[in-house]
Amino acid sequence: xxxxxxxxxxxxxxxxxxGTSSFIDFLGAVNPDLLPGRREPFQGDSSRLxxxxxxxxxxxxxxxxxxxxxxxxxxxxxxxxxxMDKLFRTDEFSAVAIAGAAGIGIELAKLFQVELEHYExxxxxxxxxxxxxxxxxxxxxxxxxxxxxxxxxxxxxxGYDDSxxxxxxxxxxxxxxxxxxxxxxxxxxxxxxxxxxxxxLYRDDLDEEGAAVAALQSLYDAADDDSATGGPDVYRxxxxxxxxxxxxxxxxxxAEDVERLAESVVQGRSERPxxxxxPLR
Length: 281
Known about the structure:
Blueprint: H1 13-16, H2 23-30, E1 52-53, E2 56-61, E3 64-69, E4 73-75, E5 78-81, E6 87-91, E7 94-101, H3 102-123, H4 129-141, H5 144-148, E8 153-161, E9 166-172, E10 178-181, E11 184-187, H6 191-201, H7 208-225, E12 241-246, E13 249-252, H8 255-271
Antiparallel strand pairs: 1-4, 1-7, 2-3, 2-11, 3-12, 4-5, 6-7, 7-8, 8-9, 9-10, 12-13
């Protein structure tokens, strides 16, 4: 980065002064063109420039939160990617998932990871979950110009709040509005179907595996009605990704565990294609 050096070959003052605890503010001062929202507006049809990442679900259970996403990315009516990873660990106790313009969403998630790491190094402590939610809101607002061009990114933030001893879910709109969701939520093109499934399947006493199964069932329902959402592909061994965050931190469920749960869902659908039913009373 040539901006790091002055004419004498020494590091610029911004790199040696303590400065702000926000990496985004630092980058904006040193090289603002690297920020996602500072690019020149695109003229023309943007619909096929980047794949679209779709359906994400999250739900809380006693002691934590589960985040799950399908693997499909689409470009118009074309399947652009069958095994995309849309879930990003942002620090030990939080994760972000993306829906919308995939390229910008991935860049936003990785920049958010660096933002949290930078804060922790500068301040000597982790940002609170509320603080993380607010920082992400500011970052999304910075992408407004790109969103107006059609490159909309809508993330979902989940994390474990040690002050409340519970998992929490935060959703966002395209202009950076932040909203806390309770119990469960879904984003992406298949979200309306996934949320309908979760409404019937969710229980307050779900354990970790039960929450993971409910997430997989809801993604199956989304894939059943939304062509942009990918369901379990048992022949290619491509299954949804599932992250769990508890007071022990973030971890991704092993592929073999997700495969076992997903295959049980598929087997159940062979007997009951519309999935499990909720009791009427």
